[in-house]
Amino acid sequence: MRCLPLLLPTLLLLLVSLPAWASDYHGQVFCQGIPVPGASVAMTRGQQRVSTITDDQGFYDFPNLADGVWKIEIKMRGFATLREVVTVLAATPQGQWQLKMLDVTHLLAMAGGAPSQPQLAERSEENAGEQAGNSAGGFLINGTSNNAATSKYSLSPSFGNHRPGEKGLYSGGVGAVVDNSALDSRPYSLSGLALPKDSYNRITALATFGGPIQIPHLFYNGPNLFVACQWTRNADAAAEQGLVPSAAERDGDLSGLTNASGQPVTIYNPATGMPFTGPIPVSPQADALLALYPLPDLAGNSQYNYQTQVLNSTHIDALQSRLDKTIGHRDQLYGGFAFESSRAGNANLFGFLDTTDILGLDAHADWAHQFNHQIYAVFGYHFTRLRTEVRPQFDRVTNISGNAGIAGNDQDPPDWGPPALVFSSGMAGLTDGNSEFNRNRTDAVSFKGTWTHLRHTVSFGGDFRRQEFNEFAQLNPRGTFAFTGAATQAPAAAGTAAGTTGSDLADFLLGIPDTSAVQFGNPEKYFRASAYDAFIADEFRVMSTFTVNAGMRWEYGAPMSELFGRMVNLDIAPGFAAAAPVVAGNPVGPLTGVRYPASLVRPDYRGWEPRVGISWRPLPASTLVVRAGYGIYDDTSVYLSSAEQMAQQAPLSTSVSVQNGAACALTLADGFRDCAGTTADTYAVDPNLRVGYAQNWQLSAQTDLPGALVVTATYEGTKGTRGAQEFLPNTYPVGATNPYTGRPVGFVYRTSNGNSTREAGEMQLRRRLRSGLTATLDYTWAKALDDDSQAGAVGHVTTEAATAPPSDFANDQTPPAMIAQNWLDLPAERGLSTFDQRNLLTASFQYTTGMGLGGGTLLSGWRGRLFKEWTAMTQITAGSGLPNNPVVLAAVPGTGFNTIVRPDLTGASIYSAGSGRYLNAAAFTTPQSGQWGTARRNSITGPREFSLDSAMVRTFRIHSTWNLDVRAEATNLLNHPAWTAWNTTVNSPLFGLPFAVNPMRSVQMVTRLRF
Question: Beta strand pairing status for 92-98 and 23-31?
Fold first, then answer.
């Protein structure tokens, strides 16, 4: 009977996925060095979610997690939710977590579901086998120190509940952060010139309240309610730097122009083939767009000649609540509601201010029922809705393109504004956001249950999710022009040295782009999809020292369809000899006669995912534990990006991606043209696209050492199959004769033939908490390879992204897919994965004063009050750089696609650079005429990683029920400049220079009052 309350919370969070049953992740939760019992700990990875409850010593255990990156969430009433990202490799040892003051940048940032519910406690599946010899099975203080779980005085386990009287049933807290830049360091200047110090003011307030709902004379044993509210107002001023045209250059005077080597550049007139002898005539369209550029305000620097401070603001209002009620001894009803409203204004180098409004809603209701001692089940419903509205600077204000005489792009009022401009030289690209009004919704129902019999614990369940993506947006409505200097280069017969003729700025002034692309029309899109999953697993305790977990999961995500059939794919003849559009509303291929489904992509029902893991203690009297596991994991989130592309194509929309040439003369005035020889559609997907999957296997050994030390050795392998792969059919290298005359060109084709591998070895040494000190030292060696377009993406794909550093896509955004260079040699795309970090060393230390005799435990009086209970935390991370991809900004013949061409290697050292550069430009050269580049994808190692963060925390006990938490934290404590990535565009003067630098030292003080 005592085990019955331990069945609920873990099973609640198992509804989405079956665990890997392969790897161990465990840890301990503290508050100011004191173990915290009864805290809810949840691990989330994609659609997978498992949870447990800390025991009376604050321990939790997840022995069977799949290897990879997980999000950990620790919740407890009266404390701020702690959310972090952890990497689980087989038998990753114990984590040490401190429940602390509110992390204002993350708390309620997403409207998540309610935490594990309190009164019907769970029995974690992972803990049932006690694989690690640890009975961390979710021991709760309900039923022990809370006067029994059936009492009206039973509360969620948390500090402060031992209070006499009716008022002791309620807990709450208020917190505030009033922060500014007074203690922060000045930003690092990439130009070497002084930058103004970033200025900001940030105000965040939060209040929490929890307790039972009671109405006098009606009922006293009402449901428990918890509510948290947050209010945030931020205003930031940040420095931006860039290279902009000078006053003389705006008038066409490029006489002082030099290349990256300092040699003079000669500009040739494309009309006569002779060099210009005076100023270049400036086209009316270029003159109109130049008016949007600021004038230089810096001198003496060839890389950046303009800097300014941009003003950004963020307003957030958020609420999170949960309600739970136990009915009798077998049933519990619980649910939650959360919302977040955020309004943000973001400015760029040009002073354009774009506003973004987001409203998120999240609600769920669950019923848990205990049928008998062996069978337990949970039924649930979950609803989420996210509304996003983006309004760019010129939305319904000024028609920049129309006033400049630029035709062919979308000039509806919501999409007013300038076209995007991209320059190969590093000139600041003109850019602004796109108008959006999107409403996404998900409805989900779930069932999960568990049956315990003898040595078996069987888990089973399933889910159904209906997803709606209602979008009012265009992919590229104002269009993009790219300038590479091709129009003003010397004629082939001139025999000039490479890099001494032609200028991208000259091309722009003349109004002759090298490529152009635009995609608009059919702005209203209503995508629909359904997702299903079911699982069954058995945890079999063969003996006290050996446990096996085995199970099967089936997962199916239907391809995305559009409610009114407004999607277009390409019906392609064998060998890409011909292509014709096929519309979802009339899904019969005009070339092949094949009938397509409404989604234009056939479903893939083969989502079987077996998983097995073992935990073995070979020597019963020893602390040595060996764990191993294997599992398959599908990626069903592959359809939305393709559906968005297919919903923006001819004949329903305008979609153009072309190159300037004799047969397709492009100008700024008439640059968005559907030229002969190119398809009117720019995207196609294999109708037999398969869902990709990854195989994971792990092996680890863990044992204790003297001195409270634990050492763990881990090996992990991953093999990805059927990943996304994208290429441009019927293309050929620059300078070659076209071998595909009459065949369709100018579109991306997506298949599922990508593969990836990753192998890693890890050694971790951990010191358990002892005398107030705990520490972890972890070293990982890994290597990852792939020819997967998505896994290998770095943000350098289309002209829109040509000048964007990889860091632009780092904040939970999916980077654009990397298009293969040579469509006939896709294996040549195999190279280092963008997340391949060869060496990573992390060290974390935590010390709490007043613990252990040496720590001053017996100090009393004012010395004890001053010295004891301070917790200092430090984390150091050092690692090798991530791969960067060398590219040549040049158009693939006959298409408008740039940055997929890689350079040739010269044999010179890549890293033996001078003149303040980090990469040697002499190590690369543009590919030989008629040949593709020989450099491998992602063959440049990026900047090394280093960070040191620290914090000091203490709780001052004002009264028996009143506590004041104080926290001081510093990021980048040493004020060390760390680059984000290198500029790897070989034909840019900025090659080998840093793209950007991570923030310098920032100091923050936080206080919170709890009662």
Answer: parallel
| 290 Cβ contact partners less than 8 Å away, ≥ 6 residues apart | 245, 250, 282
With residue 631 as reference, give the H or E element that holds it.
Answer: strand 625-635
**Surface-to-core class of residue 71, CB atoms within 10 Å of its CB (0-12 exposed, 13-18 middle, 19+ buried):** middle
Q: Please name the residue that has the structure tokens 């289309």.
A: 798
Residues 6+ apart with CB under 8 A from 838: 781, 782, 783, 880
Q: Determine the pLDDT at residue 323.
A: 93
CA dist., res. 284 & res. 509, Å (int):
9
Backbone angles phi, psi at 793, to 5 degrees: -70, 140
Q: Within the chain, which residues score under 70 in pLDDT?
A: 1-24, 31-35, 38, 45-49, 51, 55-57, 63-69, 77-80, 85, 87-95, 100-168, 181-200, 219, 260-261, 300-302, 493-499, 677, 791-817, 853, 1011
Distance CA 700, CA 201 (A): 48
Residue 863, pLDDT score: 80
Identify the pLDDT of residue 261.
67
Q: What angle do CA 383, 389, 395 make, to 5 degrees?
A: 165
Read off the pTM: 0.78
φ/ψ bin of 770: left (φ > 0), alpha (ψ from -120 to 50), beta (otherwise): beta
Q: Is 204 helix (H, G, I), strand (E, B) or coil?
A: strand
Contact 207, 232 (CB under 8 A): no
Maximum Cα–Cα distance for the chain, whole Å?
A: 100
Q: What does the alpha-carbon distance between residue 128 and residue 117 come to, in Å, rounded to a whole number? A: 19
Instruction: Give the H or E element holding residue 400.
Output: helix 400-404
Please give the pLDDT value at position 799: 28
Listed residue (881, 886, 885, 882) closest to 906, CA to CA: 886
Give strand pairing partners of 440: 386, 469
Q: What pLDDT score does 832 carry? A: 93
* Paired strand residues for 887: 985
Q: Residues 403, 404, 410, 411: what is their CA dihedral angle, to the nearest 10 degrees?
A: 0
Q: What ranges make up the beta strands (E) of 544-621?
A: 546-557, 561-562, 568-572, 579-583, 608-616
What's the angle, vertex CA 36, arms to CA 76 and CA 335, rounded to 5?
20
Spatial CB neighbours of 971, under 8 Å, sequence gap ≥ 6? 947, 949, 999, 1001, 1002
Span 723-778, pLDDT tens digits: 999 999 999 998 899 999 889 998 999 999 999 999 999 999 999 988 889 999 99
Cβ neighbours of residue 527 under 8 Å, at least 6 residues apart? 467, 468, 469, 470, 471, 560, 561, 562, 563, 640, 643, 644, 647
Give percent helix, percent strand, percent coil of the chain, each to the nearest 5.
10, 45, 45
- Measured in whole angstroms, the distance separating CA 97 from the mean position of its chain's CA atoms is 23
Q: What are phi and psi of 181, to 5 degrees?
A: -90, 15
Surface-to-core class of residue 192, CB atoms within 10 Å of its CB (0-12 exposed, 13-18 middle, 19+ buried): exposed
Lookup: tokens for 666: 């492009």
Report pLDDT for 592: 92
The pLDDT of residue 897: 85
CA distance 341 to 203: 16
What would the two tokens of residue 19 be?
């665990």
Which phi and psi angles does 373 have, rounded to 5°? Answer: -65, -25
Residue type, 507: D
Phi/psi region, residue 364 (left: phi>0; alpha: psi -120 to 50; beta: rest), is: beta
Backbone phi, then psi, for 343, in 5-degree steps? -130, 125
Tell me: the pLDDT tens digits for 118-162? Answer: 222 233 333 323 233 332 222 222 222 233 333 322 333 333 334
Q: Where are the beta strands (DSSP E) in 99-198?
A: 171-180
The helices-and-strands tally (H runs, E runs) of the chain is: 8, 43
Question: How far is it, in rounded angstroms, from Cα 371 to Cα 365?
Answer: 20
Q: Say if strands 524-543 and 34-35 run parallel, antiparallel, or are unpaired.
A: unpaired
Predicted pLDDT at 155? 32
